């Protein structure tokens, strides 16, 4: 139970840092990140199989 709580805490901290970092980007950088995130499911089978 303690281990799962610690993992959830670490994931929450990472998610918070990513959110704060994303808010600091300007519009063109946010657009780039959104496009990249949209393509990730297709990149994995294309380049790593």
Explained architecture:
By secondary structure, the chain is mostly helical. The longest helix is centred in the first third of the chain and has 22 residues, at 2-23. The mean pLDDT is 92. Helix content is 88%, strand content 0%. The chain has helices spanning 2-23, 27-47. It contains 2 helices and no strands.
Give the overall silhouette. flat
Number of helices: 2
**What is the terminal-to-terminal distance?**
36 Å
Mean pLDDT: 92
Q: What Rg, in angstroms, do the CA atoms define?
A: 15 Å
Which regions have little confidence, pLDDT < 50, spanning 5+ residues?
none
| Helix proportion range | over 70%
Return the string of H and E elements: HH
| Strand-residue proportion | under 5%
The major beta sheet can be summarized as:
none
Helix and strand content put the structural class at mainly alpha
β-strand number: 0
Give short descriptive properties of this protein.
single chain; 49 residues; mainly alpha; flat
Quick structural summary:
The protein is mainly alpha-helical. Helix content is 88%, strand content 0%. The termini are far apart.
Question: Can you lay out the helices and strands and say which pair or pack?
Answer:
Elements: H1 2-23, H2 27-47
């Amino acid at each position: 139970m303690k281990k799962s709580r610690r993992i959830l805490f670490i994931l929450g901290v990472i998610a918070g840092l990513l959110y704060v970092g994303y808010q600091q980007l300007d519009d063109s950088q946010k657009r780039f990140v959104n496009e990249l995130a949209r393509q990730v499911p297709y990149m994995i089978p294309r380049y790593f199989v």
